[in-house]
Every structure is written in C-alpha cells, then in structure tokens.
Design a protein that fits this description.
- The complex is a heterodimer.
- By secondary structure, chain A is mostly beta strands.
- Chain A is 0% helix and 54% strand.
- Chain A contains no helices and 11 strands.
- By secondary structure, chain B is mainly β.
- Chain B contains no helices and 11 strands.
- Chain B is globular and about 35 Å long.
- The model of chain B has no long low-confidence stretch (mean pLDDT 92).
- The chains are: A mainly beta, B mainly beta.
- The interface between A and B is medium-sized, with 27 and 26 residues.
C-alpha cells in the first residue's frame, strides 16, 4: 500500500517569512496530492491540491510542487501570517476506478511567530 | 450549502462497550469516508461508503462497521471498545472516490477508559 512521509514534524518561522513542508510517497500509481490545514478542534480543511499531470500549482500565498520521478511533493507558504499557524497534512491517493482512500502524512505543526 | 456535521462532538465510553457515531454529509455528496486520527498523527482510513454500500476498507478489524442511509448520512459503529480506540473520528463526504473534493467534518472525540 501507499506510504507517505512528511517533514519536518514541527516548523517555526517569523511572520513574513516563507515556510516549506516536504512529503514523499511510495506508490507510483498515486495521482492526486492534496494538502490539508487542521486547526485545533476542527477537521482538516483542503487548502490546495495537485494532480500528477501538473508540476506546480499556485493559489495566492500557497503553492504546491510535484516531482513524479522522485515521488515527492512540497507545500510552499509565502509571507506567512499568524493565522497560518496550524497543523498541515499532505496526502496521496489514486483517483480512479476502484480507488477509495487518502493516505496521510503524520503532519507538520507550523508556528508563525509575530 | 451545509457542510459535514458529526455528532456527538465528544464521547467517553468504557472498555468493552459499543459506540455509534453519526455523520451528515454535505448536500449532494454521495460518498462518505471515515477516518481515525490518533493524537499527533495523520488520519487513517477506516472505510468508505458509496450509495449505501461499503466499497473500500482500510486495515481495521471487523468490530469497526458502518452504514450509509438513502439520504447519504452515515454511521460508524465500534464494538468491544479498546483503550487504543481513543481518537478523533472524522467523517468526510465527497462526490467521488479517491479523496477528490473531500469535505471533512469537525470530528467526534472518543475517549475509552
């Protein structure tokens, strides 16, 4: 089955700096890679996702890159703000017939210091 | 458009008891998945229901079971509770399988004592 490794487990940055979180996956059949933000007491919220036919995707201050050959993908947050503080999860799945699950990384706790 | 709602929000049960958790999916979503999130870990897939049938299951024992109803709401049942079942249980609804377009609820925090 799929295995997703996520690093670092904790990350502290100064407000305004950039934050980068990296993930690797094991199953070359995986073709869908979402990123979730989870705040205390809440469920994960999708913030950005990328499919395997795209190398990079950007949405305002958030961007995701995917390297299929190396089987790794990364989340980049620029101009961080205190409200970006949360736990971030990467995930991978095969989005096709017979698919049914997301495999998550263990999460990165991001702290943005004002 | 309403999101995914789960009930109850918190629950304390004794080892050996049974528990039922409930989930109302987002309007129009026909697929419901359940995940278990232990403290400090990422969510782990339990199973998925599509049009009232289980069509995928993770590495969880048979004492974890579920139902999906004609209105696409869902239940997760856990029998013979163990201490390790203490976790946040998340429900996610979507229009398709494979995690595309998941909307998660806020979860039910289950504590087994």
């Amino acid at each position: 089955g799929e295995n997703v490794e996520q690093h670092p487990s904790t990350l502290s940055v100064q407000e305004g700096d950039s934050a980068v979180i990296k993930c690797t996956y094991s199953d070359s059949a995986s073709n869908y890679f979402p990123w979730y933000k989870q705040e205390l007491g809440k469920g994960p919220q999708l913030i950005i996702d990328i499919r395997s036919n795209v190398g990079e995707k950007k949405d305002q201050r958030i961007a995701v890159t995917l390297n299929k050959t190396a089987k790794h993908f990364s989340l980049h947050i620029t101009e961080t703000q205190p409200e970006d503080s949360a736990v971030y999860f990467c995930a991978a799945s095969y989005s096709g017939a017979g698919s049914y699950q997301l495999t998550f990384g263990k999460g990165t706790k991001l702290s943005v210091i004002p | 458009e309403t999101g995914v709602t789960q009930s109850p929000t918190h629950l304390i049960k004794t080892r050996g008891q049974q528990v039922t958790l409930r989930c109302s999916s987002q309007s129009g979503h026909n697929t419901v998945s359940w995940y278990q999130q232990a403290l400090g870990q990422g969510p782990q897939f339990i199973f998925q229901y599509y049009r009232e049938e289980e069509n995928g299951r993770g590495n969880f024992p048979p004492r974890f079971s579920g139902l999906q109803f004609p209105n696409y709401s869902s239940e997760l049942n856990v029998n013979a509770l163990e201490l390790d079942d203490s976790a946040l249980y998340l429900c996610a609804s979507s229009l398709s399988a494979g995690g595309l377009g998941y909307t998660f609820g806020s979860g039910t925090r289950l504590t087994v004592v």
